[in-house]
Amino acid sequence: MSSILDCIPKELLTDILARVATSSLNNYFNVKLSCKMLKEVAECSNVYKCISLDEFPVAALHDMNKDARRFMNRCVACENLDALYMWGMVEYFSCDNLATALTFLNKSASLGHVGAYYIITIILLLSGKDYREKGVTLLGAMKISGEYREKVNITAKN
User: Fold this and answer.
1) How many CA atoms lie within 13 A of 12 on its CB side?
2) Which helix (H) or strand (E) holds 89?
3) pLDDT of 35-55, one tens digit each?
């Protein structure tokens, strides 16, 4: 039996599902449950890269079941900004693993996550004299960067 979805190009369906995933994690999972074809399209790397993890409980990162861990690992593998940021935060604050935390946070920041860039700066400032100078340099770069000020909605006062 043919479906109306068969008439829509897969690339367009992928774009649509990526937009759904960007707006709501719950909606993303609901779409996956709706039919076999959408479930298949929802598994595309481009969709995982866009999934918003705003609704994902951060506390669950410590005690994830197998399915949740697989989901987060897939998000990280697909360079999802939120997943990289969250994983970096957990590595630093829960596991006290500076090197691994900075790996995840640097990747997230390099892909455009402003919060990751900011937290890297703070971590470096607080991680001892070996890192402090780099933290000050990054903080100064953020302060003079119009792009970062615009993204975090900071206005310079004259």
Assistant:
1) 5
2) helix 81-93
3) 898 999 999 999 999 999 988
